[in-house]
Amino acid sequence: MDKKTEDFYARLKEELTNSTLWPSEYLYKFIMPSDVHSIAKVEAAFNDMGAVITTQQSKTGKFTSVSISVTMASPQNVIDKYIEVSDIEGIISL
After folding, report:
1. Average pLDDT of 40-67?
2. Band of pLDDT at residue 1, cut at 50, 70 and 90
3. Among 14, 22, 30, 82, which residue's CB has the most CB atoms within a 10 Å radius?
4. Chain-wide mean pLDDT for the chain?
5. How far apart (Å, rounded) are the C-alpha atoms in residues 19 and 78?
6. Residue of 90, 83, 91 whose CA lies nearest to 12
7. What is the rounded CA–CA span in Å between residue 30 and residue 73?
8. Residue 45's Cα: distance from chain center in Å?
9. In sequence order, what DSSP letters do the residues of 13-26 get, joined into one string?
10. What is the reported pTM?
11. SS3 string of 35-80?
């Protein structure tokens, strides 16, 4: 992980720690190419967590937005999930 990414996650952890009581509901939002296998990988990362997952394909069908609402135990758990899905090709975290 590069320095810029490390700094981003450090700021995110600080923000989440200061603004939220944990455990708490967290909303992940991703945009990715409309590839069934890649979308399945994202969904699998949140399997067995009681997550509510919604997907919406773009008008052209090239991209899909994935929203995941799930209860997370701590800011570090939130960041760990971002890192876990970051290696999925074409995924963009919002």
Report:
1. 96
2. confident
3. 30
4. 95
5. 14
6. 83
7. 20
8. 9
9. HHHHHHH--SSEEE
10. 0.92
11. CHHHHHHHHHHCCCCCCEEEEEECCCCCEEEEEEEEEECCHHHHHH
Please give the single-letter amino acid code of residue 4. Answer: K
Average pLDDT over residues 3-10: 93
Mean pLDDT over 48-77 rounds to 96
* CA separation for the pair 19, 6 (Å, rounded): 20
Q: At what angle do helices 36-45 and 75-85 cross, to 10 degrees?
A: 160
Tokens of 48: 């067995």
- For the CA atoms of 19, 54, 88, 92, the dihedral, rounded to the nearest 10 degrees, stands at -60
